[in-house]
C-alpha cells in the first residue's frame, strides 16, 4: 500500500511539473517569468543575487504574518487592529517554524470533509488545467462519473521562484506559499454560499524534498470564457451577473465581516451548471482600510477614481463592498448586461450599469434591482405593451410533430447551427417569428431554461414535418 501511495504521489508531482511548464509557456501574463525556469526546483545557489541584511528574519516574518492571518480566519475573528498585530508579528518573527506547521495541521483536522488522501489514490486520470502566481490546478477523475479539482503550490510558479531566488530556502518558501492555500481552504469551509466553490477535502503528503505538501480537493467548474459568454443568450449572461451580485452581497455581510476580492478578474471565477462561482479566495481580505480623513480613502481604478468617507471609528466606510462592486461593473456588467436584452428591460439595465459605474448604489440596492429584472423577465411582465398584436390564426398548430432541418441562424441563439430561443409563451414565439424574415414555422420543445422559459426552434420552412410526441409545431399560414 505504501509503495502504491508513493507511486501515486510521484505521478502527481510529475504531472505538476509538466503542467507548470505548459502554463509558463502558454498562459498570458507570465511571459516575463519564463527565463531560467526549465527545472521544477530552483537551486539554492541561485539566491545570491539579492543580498539582504537578515534574510532569515525577513522570510520568517512573512511566514508569521501569513500564519496569523490564517488563524484569524480559522477563529472567525475579523479585522483586528493591524498596528498591534504588526508589533506582535515582529516579536514572533523567529518563532520555531515547526510549531506553526503543526498548528495549521491541527486546524485542518478540525474540518469535516468527505475526501482525503485515500481518495487521491483512486484517481484514474489527471489533467492540468492552469496556474497562477501561487497555485497549480488539475482535474482529477475519481471514478467514471465524478471529477474534482486539485490545487497545490506551483513549485515553478512566480511566488516560489522569486522567494527561492531571494532567500535560498525552498522549504520555508513552500511554507510561505502553502499558507495561501490553507487560507483559501479555511475560507471555502467557513463561507457557505451557492456561488462559492465547494471544498470536498484536503491531503497532506510528504515528497522527497518537502514534508507536509498540501493538496486541496474542490468542486470542479468550467473556466469563465468571456469571449464565449458574449456569444451566448442574454438570459445566460444575465444569470452570470445575477450570480455575481448575489455572491458579492453575501461577502459584504459575511460572518467574517465585509470581504474584498483583491484579485478580482474573470479568471478567478468558474461556471458550474450555469452558475458563476468564485474559486480563488487566497487574496480575499476582511481588513477595512484604516484612515484619519477621507483623503486616506482613495480608490484608484484604470478609468475612474473614488474617495470614500472616513468613519468615526477610523476606517473607510464600505471600501471592500464598493471595490468589489466597481470591479463587477468594469469586468462584467458593461459587457454582459445591456446587449441584446429585451427592449423593455434596457432602461432598468442601463440604470443598473450607470449607477454601479458611478458607485451611487451599494450592493444591496444593486441586488434588489437585478432581482426586479428577474421577476419582470420570469413572469412575462416585460412583454406588456412591447409585443405586437399578432393573431394566433396566422399560425396553424400541429401537435406531436417537429421539423427536421430547415434551420437558419439568429443571434443570440442557444444553438450554433440554428435559431433556438427561449420564450415566455406562444404569443412571444409568434411575435419573434413575425420579426424574422426567414421564419416560416417554429417548434415548441419540451426543454426549459433556468428561468422556466420554454425553448423554441424557429424554422425557415416546413417541408420536412415529422412525428415527435414531445413537441408542437406552429406553421405560418399567412
From TrEMBL:
Question: Keywords, A to Z?
Answer: ATP-binding, Developmental protein, Differentiation, Glycoprotein, Golgi apparatus, Kinase, Nucleotide-binding, Osteogenesis, Phosphoprotein, Protein transport, Secreted, Signal, Transferase, Transport, Tyrosine-protein kinase
Q: What class of enzyme is it?
A: transferase
Q: One Pfam annotation, family name? A: PIP49_C
What are the residue boundaries of the Protein kinase domain, all occurrences included?
Answer: 123-396
Q: What EC number(s) does its UniProt record assign?
A: 2.7.10.2
Tell me what reaction this enzyme catalyses: L-tyrosyl-[protein] + ATP = O-phospho-L-tyrosyl-[protein] + ADP + H(+)
Q: Name one GO cellular component term.
A: Golgi apparatus
Task: Offer an example of a GO molecular function term for this protein.
Answer: non-membrane spanning protein tyrosine kinase activity
> What are the recorded Gene Ontology BP terms?
cell differentiation; ossification; protein transport; skeletal system development
**Where in the cell?**
Golgi apparatus; Secreted
Kindly provide the name given to this protein in its UniProt entry. Answer: Extracellular tyrosine-protein kinase PKDCC
Q: What is the lineage of its organism?
A: Eukaryota, Metazoa, Chordata, Craniata, Vertebrata
Gene encoding this polypeptide?
Answer: PKDCC
Amino acid at each position: 500500500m505504501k509503495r502504491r501511495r508513493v507511486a501515486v504521489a510521484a505521478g502527481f508531482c510529475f504531472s505538476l511539473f509538466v503542467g507548470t511548464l505548459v502554463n509558463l509557456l502558454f498562459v498570458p501574463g507570465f511571459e516575463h517569468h519564463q527565463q531560467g525556469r526549465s527545472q521544477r526546483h530552483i537551486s539554492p545557489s541561485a539566491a545570491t543575487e539579492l543580498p539582504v541584511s537578515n534574510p532569515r528574519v525577513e522570510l520568517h516574518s512573512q511566514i508569521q504574518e501569513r500564519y496569523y492571518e490564517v488563524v484569524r480566519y480559522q477563529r472567525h475573528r475579523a479585522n483586528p487592529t493591524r498596528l498591534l498585530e504588526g508589533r506582535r508579528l515582529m516579536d514572533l518573527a523567529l518563532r520555531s517554524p515547526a510549531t506553526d506547521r503543526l498548528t495549521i495541521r491541527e486546524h485542518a483536522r478540525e474540518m469535516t470533509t468527505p475526501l482525503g488522501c485515500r481518495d487521491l489514490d483512486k484517481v484514474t486520470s489527471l489533467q492540468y488545467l492552469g496556474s497562477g502566481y501561487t497555485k497549480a490546478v488539475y482535474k482529477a477523475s475519481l471514478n467514471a462519473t465524478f471529477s474534482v479539482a486539485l490545487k497545490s503550490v506551483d513549485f515553478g510558479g512566480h511566488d516560489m521562484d522569486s522567494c527561492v531566488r531571494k532567500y535560498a530556502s525552498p522549504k520555508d518558501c513552500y511554507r510561505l506559499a502553502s499558507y495561501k492555500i490553507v487560507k483559501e481552504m479555511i475560507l471555502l469551509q467557513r463561507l457557505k454560499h451557492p456561488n462559492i466553490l465547494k471544498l470536498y477535502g484536503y491531503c497532506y503528503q510528504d515528497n522527497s524534498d518537502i514534508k507536509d505538501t498540501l493538496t486541496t480537493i474542490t468542486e470542479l467548474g468550467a473556466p469563465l470564457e468571456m469571449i464565449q459568454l458574449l456569444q451566448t443568450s442574454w438570459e445566460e449572461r444575465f444569470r452570470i451577473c445575477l450570480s455575481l451580485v448575489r455572491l458579492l452581497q453575501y461577502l459584504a455581510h459575511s460572518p467574517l465581516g465585509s470581504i474584498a476580492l483583491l484579485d478580482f478578474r474573470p479568471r478567478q471565477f468558474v461556471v458550474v451548471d450555469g452558475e458563476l462561482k468564485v474559486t480563488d479566495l487566497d487574496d480575499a481580505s476582511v481588513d477595512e482600510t484604516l484612515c484619519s480623513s477621507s483623503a486616506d480613502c482613495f480608490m484608484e481604478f484604470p478609468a475612474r477614481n473614488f474617495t470614500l468617507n472616513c468613519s468615526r471609528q477610523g476606517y473607510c466606510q464600505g471600501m471592500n463592498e464598493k471595490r468589489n462592486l466597481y470591479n463587477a461593473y468594469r469586468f462584467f456588467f458593461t459587457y454582459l448586461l445591456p446587449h441584446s436584452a429585451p427592449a423593455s428591460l434596457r432602461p432598468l439595465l442601463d440604470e443598473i450599469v450607470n449607477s454601479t459605474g458611478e458607485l451611487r448604489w451599494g450592493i444591496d440596492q444593486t441586488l434588489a434591482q437585478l432581482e426586479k429584472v428577474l421577476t419582470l423577465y420570469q413572469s412575462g411582465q416585460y412583454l406588456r405593451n412591447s409585443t405586437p398584436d399578432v393573431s394566433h390564426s396566422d399560425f396553424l398548430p400541429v401537435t406531436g410533430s417537429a421539423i427536421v432541418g430547415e434551420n437558419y441562424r439568429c443571434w443570440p441563439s442557444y444553438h450554433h447551427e440554428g435559431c433556438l430561443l427561449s420564450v415566455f409563451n406562444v404569443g412571444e414565439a409568434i411575435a419573434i417569428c413575425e420579426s424574422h424574415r426567414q421564419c416560416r414555422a417554429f417548434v415548441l420543445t419540451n426543454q426549459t431554461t433556468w428561468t422556466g422559459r420554454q425553448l423554441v426552434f424557429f424554422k425557415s420552412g416546413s417541408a420536412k414535418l415529422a412525428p415527435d410526441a414531445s413537441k408542437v409545431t406552429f406553421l405560418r399560414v399567412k
